[in-house]
Structures are given as structure tokens and as C-alpha cells.
Design a protein that fits this description.
nine-stranded mixed beta sheet, single chain, 284 residues, alpha/beta, D-Maltodextrin-Binding Protein, domain 2, 2 domains
Length: 284
């Protein structure tokens, strides 16, 4: 190729690069042009929903930040919707730790839980607890384990959103390690699971501590054990599973935010800045 032509092509490429960079910067400056939707994979009233709403209320963009609950299938319905959304920053996914296990539990997913998303930020971590109704005959986790061994297949337990949620998987791990036959009952979120517990439909519920605390304070629920390796600061008198019935047990819940793959870096940084600022407010 003639030297002059090569110089011309290089100049054109550089010019296109500068133009695209300028266009991306302009798009970021105009962002957002409509409400930003935070898609929550579980029903209203649960731990993920509450954390997402408190966070969203403290994000101050040029447009409102709204919550869209899409419960079901262990969070995969919501994740699929966000994976297919336009990568323009106007749709984000609020995830729990269970998102990391979706590929293992749902091999026919229409999306890749890792490759089809751009990570925005981690939000928080929280203890997982095992709870029973306040008038249940079980005073300790040891009592519950003993009852399960005496009556295999007769007791049942919910695990937050069911399926690929860390609260459910943690309880299943405990069951497997202790060789317990306890039926798993799936629900679309913490709120319906807790309602079922209070209504006597299930014997126990394994869930994020924040979903349980209001009912604990009201005297309607008793926490038998914490699944973290160490005791929870909010429940200093409640023992861990590790110090009572299963020394190897260690599990906790976490929350995070993802964006569709291909979201412009400038938009990602703007959202990260705004959500990080919101996370630092006293309300969060």
C-alpha cells in the first residue's frame, strides 16, 4: 500500500476514534434520559427488595430510580430480562449471592450469569439465619435437628426465594452434611416464605437476617441459629450452626448490582459513583 494511503487511513482511524470517544462522553453527560429501573428478582417485602428500595431512594440522578420486582425461578426470570435489556444504563439488576449458582442449577439458561453482565458494585453482606415460629417446640437448632432425625421426611423448610438462592443452598448444604431428610418448599421471595412460616404452613425458614428481625422484635419468630462462622452482631446471644451441630458450616448472604453487557464505561462509572454515594448515606 502507498505510504500516503497508509497515513490517510491512520488519520481517518484516529479521527473516528476521537469522534466515538466524544460521542460516548456526550451520551454519558446526557444520561439518564428516562427513569432508571432496578430489577429485583424477588417479591416485595423481602430482604433483597428492602435493601434495593432503601438504596434506590438515596440515588439522586436527573431521572427517578424505580424498583421492578420480577420474582420466580430463583432469580433467573429477572436476570434474563436484564440480560436482554438495552445496555444504556437505564436497566440494572439487583442480585443476591444465588446469582453465582444459577448456571449450576439451571443449565438451560438463555443467558450467561457472568458473561452477559457488566458488574457495577457490591452492596452489602448479611448473616443467614434459621428461624421457626415463636410457639414452635424447638428451642435450639439441636432440638430441630433431633426432631428431623426422629421424623425423617415429616418436617419442611423454606429457603427465601428458593432454587438458586444462597439462603436455600446453605440450608440444603446443612441438610446434606447432617444427612437430614427435610422437605424443601420454594417461595418467590422472603415475604411469602415468612408468611407461610407464621401461618404454620412450614416448620422453619432459612433466610437473610434482615427479613426476620421485624418478626423477631414482634415476638412472632424465634431464631435458632446463625449460619455464619461467627455470631451476628445483631444477634449476639444466638449461636452459630458451626458451634452447635455442624462445625464446618459457614454461609452468608450478599447483594450486588449488575448491568447488561456492553454498557458504556462512562455510564457505568456514573452509576457506580451515584450508587456508591447512596450507599454511604446514613439511611443505608
Amino acid at each position: 500500500m502507498h505510504t500516503g494511503n497508509r497515513h490517510l487511513l491512520r488519520s481517518l482511524a484516529a479521527g473516528i476514534g476521537i469522534a466515538l470517544a466524544g460521542l460516548a462522553s456526550a451520551c454519558a453527560q446526557n444520561f439518564p434520559t428516562r427513569p432508571v429501573t432496578v430489577v429485583v428478582p424477588f417479591s416485595p417485602g423481602g430482604a433483597a427488595d428492602v435493601v434495593a428500595r432503601v438504596l434506590a431512594q438515596n440515588v439522586h440522578l436527573k431521572q427517578p430510580v424505580v424498583i421492578d420486582n420480577k420474582p420466580g425461578a430463583g432469580g433467573t426470570i429477572a436476570a434474563a430480562a436484564v440480560a436482554k435489556a438495552a445496555p444504556d444504563g437505564h436497566t440494572v439488576l439487583f442480585i443476591t449471592a444465588g446469582h453465582a449458582g444459577q448456571r449450576a442449577l439451571y443449565p438451560k439458561l438463555s443467558y450467561d450469569p457472568v458473561a452477559d453482565f457488566t458488574p457495577l458494585m457490591g452492596v452489602s453482606q448479611s448473616p443467614i439465619v434459621i428461624a421457626v415460629k415463636a410457639d414452635a417446640p424447638y428451642r435450639t437448632i439441636g432440638d430441630f435437628v433431633e426432631a428431623a432425625r426422629k421424623r425423617p421426611g415429616k418436617l419442611n423448610c423454606a429457603g427465601g426465594g428458593g432454587g438458586a438462592t444462597v439462603t436455600n443452598l446453605a440450608f440444603e448444604q446443612m441438610k446434606a452434611d447432617l444427612r437430614l431428610d427435610i422437605a424443601a418448599v420454594p417461595y418467590k421471595g422472603s415475604a411469602p416464605a415468612l408468611t407461610a412460616l407464621l401461618g404454620g404452613e412450614i416448620d422453619c425458614d432459612s433466610d437473610n437476617v434482615s427479613a426476620m428481625l421485624p418478626m423477631v422484635s414482634a415476638g412472632k419468630v424465634r431464631i435458632l441459629a446463625v449460619m455464619n462462622k461467627s455470631r451476628a452482631s445483631l444477634l449476639p446471644d444466638v449461636p452459630t450452626v458451626a458451634e452447635t451441630v455442624l462445625p464446618s458450616m459457614e454461609a452468608s448472604a450478599w447483594f450486588g448490582i449488575l448491568l447488561p453487557k456492553g454498557t458504556q464505561p462512562a455510564v457505568v462509572e456514573e452509576l457506580r459513583k451515584q450508587f456508591a454515594t447512596a450507599l454511604g448515606t446514613p439511611q443505608c
